[in-house]
Amino acid sequence: MTDSSRRTFIKGAGTLLAGGLLPVSLVELVFAKTSDNFTFAYISDSHIQQISGNEFVRNFDRGLIRAVAECNLMDPKPDFVIYGGDLAQLGSKPEIDHGLEIMSALNYKTHYVMGEHDYYLDLGEYWESQLGPQHYSFDHKGVHFVILNSILTYDDWTHNRWSSGEERMGVMAGLDNPNGSPFMVGDAQRVWLKKDLDKVSKDTPLVVLSHSPLQKIYKGWNFWTEDAEQIQALLKPFNKVNVLYGHVHQIQYNQIGNISFNSAMATAWPWPYPSSFLKSASHVPKLTVKMNRADPFFERDATGWQFIDVNSGNVDVQYSLTDNKPRTVAFSDKKKQPQDTQYQDKTIPPQEHY
Amino acid sequence: MKKFASWAVFSLLWLVVPVSVAEPLGLPPVPVPADNPQSPEKIALGDKLFHDTRFSATGEVSCATCHDRGKVFTDSPLRVSEGINKLTGTRNAPTVVNAAYMTSMFWDGREPDLEGQSGQPFLNPVEMALPDHQPILDIVRKDPDYVAAFKTVFGKSGDQVTMKEVKQAIASFERTLVSGDSPFDRYYFGGETDAMSAAAIRGLEVFLNRGRCVSCHTISQNYALFTDNRFHNLNVGFERIGKDVTELANAFSAAKATGTDVDIAVLTNKNTSELGRFAVDDQWTSMGGFKTPTLRNIEKTAPYMHDGSLKTLKDVVDFYINGGRVKETDPVNAFQSGGIRQLDFTGRDKSDLVAFMKALTSPDYASEGEKTQ
């Protein structure tokens, strides 16, 4: 069965089963194509926050606990899990420890991506002592995976402006803080990335994992990577390139040239959509207060996690959304871009420039 | 004899009262499927079918055994229902009263409507335990009363009478079991300021605000169904499968894919039962979720929750105050609904809330509990 016919069936089955509910275990049993077929799960942005001592914000604990428990139900099992960054809220040892303790209930090997909330207290020192290098690559069943630390910024901002790590972390933790600084992968990692990719054949599917989007969406909220174009240039020679990122706490997908972009939901809270690129001034009150949940009663509303099918070399992202119907953003062979399999009535042209 | 008498009175009532009777205060018009319109004769036929014990393996159990009019169409005070030979299921019988408004049936919503629901208990081994529906068809195609009634209602006889007609008649009867006009309805929708006690009025305030009850037990502008028709994991009974949930869920999904009957599985296996909505829709987010029940006539339908594990309304309030736990030290499962959080109640909030729930009893059932006790 070809990939496109497989996806056609998924869509068809979604319509047949009321509300597009897919028995996931059946999909895999029926459609397992070759031994190379695999899925991995992706959990992100839990923002585990210490109140004091052993007391942590319950809401954010519950989000991660739930995602881990749901992820453990996957059948067939995912080959591994990616954690997309921002495990902690303010990067402290107790927060990282508490987050990792919750993650330890997960039944699978996990690769971690660095988020700015994990980093700016001690520049990733404790995180690295627990989880290893901040960027590396690995191969899995014919797919080349690259993990980048994309939330670095200008050295002057990092090293010369703040009286303490706490102060630096506090500024970077604000979504719309004008004293923040744009994220970047930086020269050193880009040099490493080029060398790493030189060893990979151009028809090998790539999956690049970063915390910030490796595309420019909205600078005001740091939905942004300053050297996005330079990284995209390094990825351009490859046939199938997928970038998966966290940070934005909402479903986003985009295609730039050969590169497909998909975001991850947060387990902690949803962000609204940025007002981005308005020609006239926005009179919406400036956002300075965290929107910590969409439905004030169901605190898990608009949060979730996802699992990813890399069967074709292009990723299909299946979102498991608490208190909502699941959604699937799959790569369309016809349109050559990711698209939501259920919401195609109003298609939005892919972004081609910033 | 008593049952027959009440049936006769009821059907007589329907002969003189127009079918499109106005809905009671506090309830919207009853939704009726286009392919199963109400008629007095169909309702009377459904009533007779509902009370017929011949549709069970022992000839002793009817729908009314667990859905007894004298107990607001439940089997209160049983914790879980008893079918043939006193076999017990896994779940507390939900009332049929106002089920007409629900968008899915059974605690896990495994049937979409009353027609679909009504065919299942006949076959469940711990309920009426027939091997298939044929014994029912044999009776309704031969029994002279039924032959006449099916001919009148559906214009069908002999092999033309199928389970479709049987289920439609039962559903039509159940659609007449609507009940509003409670003190709350008269106070809230009818403007009778003295219809509820001062405690119940304070309890309504708790219900709407501090208690956050209304988020799931909904009150709308012109009516109140007291259910959001959604499924929530409250942390009731889930502890028994908490540790093994992955293995249990995977094994159940595999069994279901090869033809295991969900209705039988969830009522005959206590562990499978606790999978809740997941057993129906296979969604991880539905794990351990059960449908929000209506609160109308709740005082008369103890015990409470899907497994009947809480005895009194006070116990239920304490359970919610503790964030979905009987004791504050009990564990909370990973799948618990994000809506369930510890509540900060002051002194009399608890008794006020109970007083409010007692104001949700309709006059049709107001004295029934006392009568049967």
How helix-rich are the residues of chain A, as a percent range? 25-40%
Query: What is the terminal-to-terminal distance of chain B?
Result: 20 Å
Number of helices of chain B: 17
Broad structural category of chain A: alpha/beta
Could you state the oligomeric state of the chains shown? heterodimer
Strand content of chain A: 15-25%
Q: What characteristic shape of chain B results from the CA principal axes?
A: globular
Class of chain A, according to the CATH hierarchy?
Alpha Beta
Largest sheet of chain B: 2 strands, antiparallel
CATH architecture title of chain A: 4-Layer Sandwich
What report would you give on this structure?
The complex is a heterodimer of chains A (354) and B (373). Chain A has helices at 3-16, 24-31, 58-72, 93-103, 116-119, 125-131, 155-160, 165-173, 187-198, 228-235, and strands spanning 39-43, 50-52, 55-56, 81-83, 110-112, 136-140, 143-147, 206-210, 241-245, 253-256, 259-263, 304-309, 316-321, 327-332, 337-340. Chain A has one domain (34-274, 288-340): Metallo-dependent phosphatases (Purple Acid Phosphatase, chain A, domain 2), CATH 3.60.21. In chain A, α10 links the parallel β8 and β9 (241-245). In chain A, α9 (187-198) packs parallel to α10 (228-235). Chain A contains ten helices and 15 strands. Chain B has a domain at 2-174: Cytochrome c-like domain (Cytochrome Bc1 Complex, Chain D, domain 2, Orthogonal Bundle), CATH 1.10.760.10. Chain B has helices spanning 2-16, 40-50, 63-66, 114-118, 134-142, 144-154, 163-174, 183-188, 198-208, 239-242, 245-257, 262-268, 270-273, 278-281, 313-321, 349-358, 368-372, and strands at 231-232, 290-291. Helices cover 38% and strands 1% of the residues of chain B. Chain B is built from 17 helices and two strands. With 373 residues, chain B is mainly alpha-helical. In chain B, α9 (198-208) packs across α16 (349-358).
Q: Which terms would index this structure?
A:
heterodimer; A: 354 residues; alpha/beta; Purple Acid Phosphatase, chain A, domain 2; 7-stranded mixed beta sheet; 6-stranded mixed beta sheet; 10 helices; 27% helix; 19% strand; B: 373 residues; mainly alpha; Cytochrome Bc1 Complex, Chain D, domain 2; two-stranded antiparallel sheet; 2 strands; 1% strand; disordered C terminus
